[in-house]
C-alpha cells in the first residue's frame, strides 16, 4: 500500500495541516480506512480510487467518515497533479459519497497551489443571543469576548456554527464533554470560533480532544459570514489558523457574487510534500 504525506495551507514543511493520502491499495473496508487514519494520527486522511481517468475519494477523521472536508481535497489536488498532470495547471473532478467537487491545481515558480470550489453557501440558522450564550459558556468565553454580530449556522458542504469573538482565542477551554448535542439542534456538525478583528479561527473535534490546524471546509462558511456581516472590504482575503498548535496556516478565499449574493466560494491553499511512504 502506498501513501503520501503532505502539509496543506502552507509553503513550509512541518507547518500547516498534515494529511495522509492513500492512493495505491487493494480494496479496503470502511473499518480498515478508519483504522489506517487512526494509525496516522492526523486530523483527517483521504483514500483515492483512480480508474480510467475518473477519481473518487473517501475522507475519514480519527472518529468517523465525512462526506466532505476541505484540507484533504486541497491536499489531494497535489497528488493528482503530481501523478496524473502533464501541464502547469489542471482541473480535476472528484466524486465523494454524495457529491462531486471541482479542484484546480497549478505550479508557479516551484510553488504548488490548489483551489476548491465550494459553491453558494447555505445560511441554515441565525442563533438568538440566548442560544449563542450556551456555546460561549461551553468554551469558557464570557460577555467580554463576544462580538456584536450573531452566531450563525452556515454550510458549504459541512455545516458549522460560526461563533464570533473580538479577542481571546487563547482563553478557550472546553467546559462540556461533548459539543455535538448543542450543535445538532441548530443543524450544525462542528463549531468554529472566529476572531472577527484578526480573521483568525479555531475549531476542534466535538469533544475538544483534537484541535484542527487548518479547516478548508470551514473556510467557506467563515467567508460567507464575514461577507454577510460586512466584516471584510474585499472579496479576496486570508483566514489564519493553527497558531496555537505551532503550525501556522493560511487559507485564501475568493468570493464571486451576483444579484442574489454569493454565488461561489473558492478556497485555495499551498501544499508541500513531506514524504512518499510504502506501508507493508
From TrEMBL:
Taxonomic superkingdom: Bacteria
MF annotations from Gene Ontology: isomerase activity
Sections of the chain in a coiled coil: none
GO annotation, cellular component aspect: cytoplasm
Catalytic residues, chain numbering: 44
InterPro entries: Phenazine_PhzF-like
Annotated Pfam families: PhzC-PhzF (PF02567)
Family membership: Belongs to the PhzF family.
PANTHER family with a match to the protein in the record: ANTISENSE-ENHANCING SEQUENCE 1 (PTHR13774:SF32), PHENAZINE BIOSYNTHESIS PROTEIN (PTHR13774)
Name of the protein in question: PhzF family phenazine biosynthesis protein
